Amino acid sequence: MRMSMYAQQLSGTVVNEMQQPVVNAHVTVNPGNHFRVTDRKGQFSFDSIDQGSYSITITYLGAKTYHQALQVTSQLQQLVIIMKDDVLNLDNIVLTGSTATQRQLHSGNTITTLRSAQLQNNFFSGTAGLLQGVPGLTIDLAAGDVFTRVTSRGISASAQDDLGWYYVGLQEDGLPVSLVQHSYYSPDLFHRSDLMTEKVEALRGGNAAISATNAPGGVYNFISREGSATQKGELEVGGGLQGDTNASFRMDGYVSGPVAQDWFYAVGGHYRVDEGARNTDFTFSKGGQLKANLTKHSNKGFFKLHLKYLNDYTNRYTGVAATNWNDPVAAFGQDFNTSALLMPGFEGHIPDGRNVEKNRTFNPGNGVHAKVFTLGFNFSHDLGAQWNVNINSKYSDQIADWQTSISNAFVSINNPLGYFISGADFPVGQVVFRAANNQEEIARIDNSATLVGGPATYLTDGRLPNDALMGTSAWVKYNTANEWMNQITLHKKWTTHRLSFGGALAISKADVFTQGSFAYATYAPNPTMLQVTLENPNQPVLALSDETGLSNYGGLFYVNASATTSHSALFVHDRYEFNDRLSADLGLRFARIKHKGAKDRFAPINQSGGLDQDEQTAYDNSVLTGTGEQDFFNYTYDYLSFSGGINYMLKKEVALFGRYSLGHKGPELDYYFNNFSNVPINQKGEIQHIEQSELGVKYLGTQFSATATIFMSRLRNIATSNFEYDQDNGQLFYTPIQSNNSRTIGVEWEMAYVATPHFTFTFNGTVQGAKAVDWTLYNANGSVDSADDFVLDFSGQRLPNTPNFMGNVAARYTQSKLSSFVRWRYMGEREGNIANAFQLAGYSQVDLGLSYDVSPQWSVHFLMTNVANAAGLANFYGPTSFGANADDVTAEFIQNNPEAPFIVMPILPRQGVLKLRYRF
After folding, report:
1. Which of 2-11, 20-29, 752-761, 838-847 has the lowest mean pLDDT?
2. How many CB atoms are closer than 10 A to CB 27?
3. How confident is the model at residue 725 (pLDDT cuts 50, 70, 90)?
4. Is residue 646 part of a domain?
5. 560-580, pLDDT tens digit by residue?
6. How many Å apart are CA 290 and CA 597, to the nearest integer?
7. pLDDT value, residue 3
8. Parallel, antiparallel, or unpaired: how do β-strands 197-204 and 218-224 relate?
9. Is the pLDDT of residue 720 over 80?
10. Which among 526, 627, 498 has a CA at the least distance from the CA of 99?
11. In a domain, 789, yes or no
12. What is the 3-state secondary structure (H, E, C) of 611-665?
């Protein structure tokens, strides 16, 4: 701006209600669009403001927007501005769920914003763990950082699904983390949050139907920090103990600042080493992430280039055995808090079913190795005449390499399955079990009587723990995807209209390979791998496993497929402001999903003596491999989604809103990969229909703020299937898909009360009722053969894994340099399966935190979750038999098997961490 002789200096200090400086607040003076960012002392200064009338606006995430008329005079002006807390972030500008930015209070959607400080009040947890405080969401993170399950407002098929984010979208900076999902390939594999995360916007239902890619249930957008006008940063080092005193270490950091005139950068990430919340003999998680962005600002907009590199190993837990249907307790010496029941770490080699002359390394200690490289850009430009264009684009290269256990069933030594699953033709007689790590004999058994229902007999003093084997599989999956995503949006402002329209195109090239092999291990809290042989007198020794305990190489499961997926969409959204109080919006999104790919047919190798042509090794007799034939698919799915809402400002601080949405969910790639085993893929999947209605109120007061929303969700054409085991042919398989319908009605709320500048109380929760309106279950009767299959009808039952009540209550106290909080979480009772035969009891846990500012730069933070070490149950997996699932349990089954053991998934045990943080 050209200086005049009347130019004056305007400066000030921004503080919070406890007179602490507010750092990095955005200060704007208009007209003229003068802009500054407060420094470490909360100060700002403008050196050349002409005398006259202005308005000053100050925004800061977590504080209510400050806006005041201002008269600049010839006198030097020093302002002192006190910003009040906005605990629910209702005065925050939100991006998610709308094609144009707007205040959350005015959005007409149900959005919860979590800022960086709130995200840091969590243990070193995965993405799902950071969403626990969002009402309406049912979060299951008992498996660990990945393989989590997130559902919104009862929009769920089953918590046992291996696609835990099926109806919702996980985004980074406005684009999906991953375009496709299929079994054991969900977006949480490729996402980690750290200090580079500025905030999270969690949209439930509503405009997710028209603003997201195939995610009508909700969108959770993790927004990254960007470059700053001044050099700043944070470094955080933390270590802790969890479960049975297992250690964890993590280092986070970020730095940002100017590069040149109008150029700004931000770079950060983390590295961690974690022994895990439960006991394993390997490091449960290790690895890290690097993120960076470079932004060029101009008076017409900005251009941002960003990248991410993630290289992380982690694992996931598979459940604990329990007895007592009415009040479950851990069984077989296991413990709800500490038992992992995973195979120990070792290195084995399994023939690659795609090319049996090559071997794949298998080490359960590697767990899930996720690697991602992402490069993208965001461009926004003012075209003039109230037109603006925004382009958001990225390329992503993803790898998920699974080497882990699947299942930890109880297989009695009296069950012939434990011997015949090896792939041997007739493994009957004296079976010898040796510890694979030192070859010491553990037990010698005569299993002859098991063929006629009798018990196996120990031949020496050695015993197998619990007289059983652990029914587990060496689960090998190597999945890759190369993805390109692009969205372009045009905005036009009129006096009363805010029109946005545009298009999106995304393409993913995915390759999938899955192979399952049996593995011999003891059924004990800390399993030992077993080398197993058949040593009948006067006969050659027959190896039922290799020297590491691996057996039936690649004989349990085989999928080798590739697919190209394209998502294209055209969308339009208009917001019409009738007056200062009343506004309405309407949006449409036409989407087209194309799936084109091929899936191998397979068969066991056909040569005498198995793969190595050795009659004395049974473990390689049944390797499944491609036959050279393929089944192709090429299907297109079109649907039109709709969302319309109205927002009325009853007062300046009170908003009423209502919304109706009709969204759709196109099939994911699991439809082709999990079904059509060795048969033509001659039928396209069903498009699911998700109808949602909501009516709510938002209140932003001086001391008290609240939101409340009544909602209803209806789902039609829900595709459900179970993962089962055929004891006759020794293969795992998925049952045919059933199409079902459900309905959920409920209310969710968020409340915050600032009692004093030092005390703040928050309370949020959900009360809901979820019903399976029309629901059938396919019973394969334990075999692939469909001749004896039948369908059960459970229409009218309560929807499983959907609690009637969830709540979070927290109190925060801040005084000078000291800050503390205590938080109580409650998860209500849930049905364990669609038969409503088993209920998961409600449970609660208490978390607490304490922080102390040693100096303006240094601070110390202590955090503990699940302080009382509560052992709540998050999930139910059915009987402990190999290949069983939750839906195998009915009221009749429990009546006939009152003492039967079953598998549950307990919540994570107590975790504590101490962090040292340095700001500069």
Report:
1. 2-11
2. 23
3. low
4. no
5. 999 999 999 999 999 999 998
6. 33
7. 36
8. antiparallel
9. no
10. 498
11. yes
12. CCCCCCECCCCCCEEEEEEEEEEEEEEEEEEEEEEEEEEEECCEEEEEEEEEEEE
Q: What is the pLDDT of residue 100?
A: 61
**Residues ≥6 apart with Cβ < 8 Å to 188:** 126, 127, 128, 145, 146, 147, 148, 164, 165, 170
Asked if residues 714 and 654 have their Cβ atoms less than 8 Å apart, the reply is no
Backbone angles phi, psi at 535, to 5 degrees: -125, 70
Residue 727 has pLDDT above 70, yes or no: no
> How many domains are there within the chain?
2
Closest to 398 (Cα-Cα) out of 668, 176, 140: 176
* CA–CA gap between residue 765 and residue 279 (Å, rounded): 33
396-to-176, 222, 399, 722, 898 alpha-carbon distances in Å: 10, 17, 10, 31, 51
Asked if residue 147 is part of any domain, the answer here is: no
Angle of CA points 761, 851, 908, to nearest 5° = 75
CA angle 732/738/740 to nearest 5° reads 140
Q: How confident is the model at residue 108 (pLDDT cuts 50, 70, 90)?
A: confident
The CATH number that applies at residue 45 is 2.60.40.10
Q: Which residues, in sequence order, are bridge partners of residue 810?
A: 762, 823
One-letter amino acid for residue 881 of the chain = S
pLDDT tens digits for range 863-876: 999 999 999 999 99
Q: Are 92 and 65 in contact (CB under 8 A)?
A: no
The whole domain housing 543 covers: 232-338+384-634+655-919
3-state secondary structure (DSSP) of residue 583: strand
Question: What pLDDT shows up at residue 76?
Answer: 66
Please say whether the beta carbons of 874 and 832 come within 8 A.
no
If you write DSSP's letter for every residue of 440-493 in order, what string do you get?
Answer: -EEEEEE-GGGGGT---EESSS---GGGEEEEEEEEEEEEEEEEEEEEEEEEEE
| Rounded-to-integer distance, Cα 700 and Cα 705, Å | 5
pLDDT tens readout for residues 404-421: 998 999 999 999 999 999
Q: Are 29 and 79 in contact (CB under 8 A)?
A: no
Question: For residue 849, what is the domain's CATH number?
Answer: 2.40.170.20
Structural domain includes residue 170: no
Residue whose tokens read 């109205």: 646
Q: Which two tokens stand for residue 734?
A: 């998925």
CB 767 within 8 A of CB 736: no
CB atoms within 10 A of CB 36: 19
Q: What predicted TM-score, i.e. pTM, was given to this entire model?
A: 0.91
Nearest by Cα to 159 from 842, 766, 799: 799
Look at the chain and count its residues: 920
Is the separation of the CB atoms in 747 and 767 below 8 Å?
yes
Distance CA 337, CA 904 (A): 12
**Of the residues 16, 48, 83, the one at which a domain ends:** 83
Per-residue model confidence as pLDDT tens digits over 620-678: 999 999 999 999 999 999 999 999 999 999 998 899 999 999 999 999 999 999 888 89
